[in-house]
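User: Can you fold this complex?
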Amino acid sequence: MDIGFWVFQTLNALQLSMLLFLLSVGLTVIFGLMHFVNLAHGALYAFGAYVAATVAGGLGYWPGFLLAPVLVAAIGLLLYAGLIRRMRKSGPMAQVLVTFGLIFALLDLTRIIWGDLAFGMELPAVLSGRVTIGSVEYPTYRLFIIALGAGVFGALALILGRTQIGAMIRAGVDNDAMASCLGINVERLFFVVFCIGCALAGLAGAIAAPILSVTPDMGLQILIPTLIVVVIGGLGSLKGAITGSLIYGFVQTFGAVLVPNLASVLIYALLAVVLVMRPAGLFPAKG
Amino acid sequence: MFRLTPVRSGALGLLAALGLYAAFSAEYFGLEILTEIAILSMLVIALDMVAGFGGMVSLCHGALLGIGAYAYAGLTTMTGADPFLALLGAVVLTGIAGFLVGAVCAGSQGIYFIMVTLAFGQMAYAFFFESAAFGGDDGIAGVPRLDLSGLGVDLGDSRSFVLFCMILLALVTLFAAHILRSGLGRTLVGLKTNEQRMRALGVRSWRAKAYTFGISGMIAGLAGVLAAQHTMYISPGLLNWTVSGEALVVVILGGLGTLVGPLVGATAFVLIKHEVSALTPYWHLVTGVILIAVVMSGANGIFGFFEAQLERLRNRSKPAVEGKLKQGSVHDA
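Assistant: Here's the predicted assembly.
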């Protein structure tokens, strides 16, 4: 195991982490701000992947990459208006069940629209090559994913930490009743955050489409890792989402190469330990 | 606390009569469906005990069922144990697993409880999926059924096996009702309603929760043993979280916290699945829409809905009772 091995696996781990980060950040902020458990987040990601693959088939990679978040945000808007606004006051169990029903329904909708066959997606010429880092050759596209994830994290950190709307969102997560007493339209804030979260899920789908095959159940497969990230990191915080993603990415990747028999048990055991020791996760938004 | 109202005992009697009629009149395919209903019913009774009465919404009951199935299959095919002893061993083992999960999770609430149980369930799933000793993702084939030839019964026959499952289901239902009416069951409902007050009264909350989870685990384990005997083949898919999710859907469709409702739900779910999947491959869409409609309607499932309607009819002739406690709605959980 030379240095090249470690560089290669570290890049793999980072790439997985960033993909999960894009998904979990939307979920965790919706969770923290709206106290809403959206199990259908994975289905939105699958939708994004299908939209990107379909558009890319006709118009090329970049239109697909840009359209997927927009269309998924539009679907999020419909879900918000039709279902989620009415479920805001119900308990977590009713929300889990309604969004579980949504998973069923959206899964079959994607099968009706796109069929059961797996889709592939072509990469643009700029991203399809390999880059040499020291002794390692690494696919450009995977480096692009890492850069994109890091870029989104930077932008969100800036918006949440330094702008007025960020301060309003943090206030809403911390104490929504007090925030609305201070004149913040919390409901509209929820709505905006929900749409952005959905758009990020769509973006995650679009960037995952070329490296994973696009199948109807891809949303179901990514859901559990995303929930693990959110729960390990703690609800509602950006810091939690990025930490959780990195922990998951590294444990999963290095577990798979170093202790292949235990890799998948390892991550669940870690989750159980975190939840038993710190029931609210590592960095919950509310102290 | 579970109350065996006339409506509930009537519904139970009706279900038993329908089940017996179906068991004696159905052809091979009908018997398979009936067995599926009986096994799913047993699993959802286990889930309703913890979710409906204890407010502990578990997403690891599929895994408990799977542990029961694997324990039975492992004991019979690998160590050559007697199927009776293997059945007992599997039930005890699943009970211990349930007790441990319940004890560890007792401090978690709401969405966190759902997540921790999900984590434990997936952990078991991942374990059996990766484990070479238990056949990995190929599972274990050639699981034997119980040998009841001493009683003159051949369980290899579908009809006898259905009747065997139904008898066990009836016993399990009565057992669950008995537990829920006992001191433990009352403590459990008290904890669900107001945990702080129960603790102030000197109840050790984790103990009641862990015991109930253990008993519920035993029932789920028995369902797993029957599932393994039914198909005579098991795979890690039994432990996947979607199985637990479906069981939760069934409890909700039927009526949470009524014990009778889940039986209605299991029957409805399996029939919908087979009827709709004969018409269209997209039966998940239909189930999903029904589930959303049931939860959003605010009614407590199919059985809860009828129970409430009957209650209204009965109360129309009597003066209204003020301040009556509304029990077991999905939205309180």
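The interface with chain B takes residues 37, 83, 86-87, 90-94, 96-98, 100-109, 111-112, 220, 224, 227-228, 231, 261-265, 268-269, 271-272, 275-276, 279-280 of chain A (CB under 8 Å). The two ends of chain A are 42 Å apart (CA to CA).
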